[in-house]
Design brief:
Layout (H helix, E strand, L loop, with lengths): L8 H6 E2 L8 E5 L11 E7 L11 H7 L6 E9 L5 E6 L3 E4 L2 E4 H8 L5 E11 L3 E10 L7 H10 L10 E4 L13 H17 L1
Length: 203
């Protein structure tokens, strides 16, 4: 998908599209595979001449990431912009399910990165017996800063975020665990907070 070079800068940075060619097919779908309405967030699925047909010798994986009619489930979350193009909302795997309400970790992280007390941030799910998951925010503080959860939630509310998306626990660390590919390992961070909660419950 490609933006028009003559579009205003704000629009170019916000949306993706239009389609590369008329034979591309795009749908945004919910967890049950139903198309979502314009303005609602759904998973990007695509089918067309530029879409891969499958992964080599990985039939089980192909069964998970392709629909029966050949649409590729990208894992990208988008919503349809008013002009027909698409706004990227994050990755499906990077969602926190708080009592059925889906929270984009990337959305919260992008807002918090603008806070002067934060050098880096990662939002992960932490287990909750009632809601299933709540949001824990891991933070690497800026030099000399000592951010608090109240300070960060106030900052987020000032940015207009919905209250259910607010993080409910803050962990300040010196560094993040990394994956073998050098990326922040949210899997390890989620395991860390789960272990800490279990330890606190035992105490």
């Amino acid at each position: 998908m490609l933006n028009d070079i003559d579009d205003p800068a704000a629009l170019r940075f916000e949306v993706a599209g239009p389609l590369w060619c008329a034979d591309d097919e795009i749908k945004l779908v919910d967890d049950e595979g139903r198309e979502v309405a314009d303005g609602e967030t759904g998973e990007l699925t695509c089918r067309g001449p530029y879409t891969l047909r499958g992964y080599y010798k990985l039939p089980d994986h192909n069964a998970r990431v392709f629909t029966a009619d050949g649409f590729f489930l990208t894992g990208d979350l988008m919503r349809r912009h008013s002009d027909g193009r698409y706004v990227v909302e994050g990755r499906k795997k990077d969602l926190i399910n708080r009592g059925g309400e889906k929270i984009s970790a990337e959305e919260v992280e992008n807002l918090l990165l603008a806070h002067p007390a934060i050098r880096n941030v990662a939002c992960v799910p932490m287990p909750d017996p009632v809601l299933g998951e709540r949001t824990c925010v891991y933070v690497i503080a800026a030099p000399g800063a000592d951010p608090t959860l109240d300070e960060l939630t106030t900052f987020l509310l000032d940015q207009g975020i919905a209250k259910f998306k607010l993080p409910e626990r803050l962990e300040v660390v010196e560094r993040f665990p990394l994956s073998p590919f050098g990326k922040v390992s949210k899997k390890d961070l989620a395991a860390m907070i789960a272990a800490r909660l279990a330890e606190e419950e035992r105490d």
